[in-house]
Amino acid sequence: MEVEPIRIVAFASGNGSNVRAIYDNIQRGSLSADLVGVISNNSGCGALQFARENSIPALHISLRQFSTAAAYEERLLNVLHERAPDLIVLAGYMKMMPESIVRAFKNRMLNIHPALLPSFGGRGLYGHLVHEAVLDYGCKVSGVTVHLVDAEYDTGPPVLQRCVPVLDDDTPETLASRVLQEEHKIYSDAIQLFAEKRVQISGRSVRICAGSKK
Ligand code: GRF
Fold first, then answer.
1. Which of 13, 12, 54 is nearest to 34 (CA)?
2. Which atom of ligand 1 is nearest to the CA of 114?
3. Hey, which of 49, 183, 187 would you mutate to test ligand 1's pocket, going by the most ligand atoms within 8 Å of its Cβ?
4. Residue 145 belongs to domain with CATH number
5. N or C: more exposed end of the chain, with fewer CB within 10 A?
6. Count of domains in the chain?
7. Tens digits of per-residue pLDDT, 77-115?
8. Domain span at 141
């Protein structure tokens, strides 16, 4: 079945390996999407550099560039309306998304978190701190959560979750790299479900409808 590509805009602050994985899956034909913009608060980040190298519109937008929060939000909203994404994906975006933007894209904004929420999430739990906390607790599994974004950190309802085993000799680095490999698959899988219009959202209940048989 031909699936109409959905337009996505990615927000990222760091290396951008998730943005890269999404882009690669689009190029490979396994993800039906158009990456129509990458936005970052961090002008020197790998995600923006990758976007520029691949002729994807790349924008540096940071609160610091504006004298008021309202002006910053207006700029974000204008850019987003101009890019007209069906879906916004936060991929290692280290800033809280303003509430006005979350509201404007309700149920159309995803985030990826490198653990099984609601454990090991929330303010202050990001990057390696997540994996350190998982190991300190002695967990036997960790994982990845792709969830809808609401106005808090990591509290929106999950769309997809997958487990990743914790090994006895794991360090935060080895666990992070195993989790990241899963992130690179699950994010495209989640976006593809939106492209196929198979995601039904009602409050905190996110159901994935069966796909049509090929
Ligand atoms: C990922 O682990 C993501 O889950 C977290 O930040 C990391 C970003 O990695 N929020 P990258 O910039 O996509 O390489």
1. 54
2. 4
3. 183
4. 3.40.50.170
5. C
6. 1
7. 999 999 999 999 999 999 999 999 999 999 999 999 999
8. 6-208
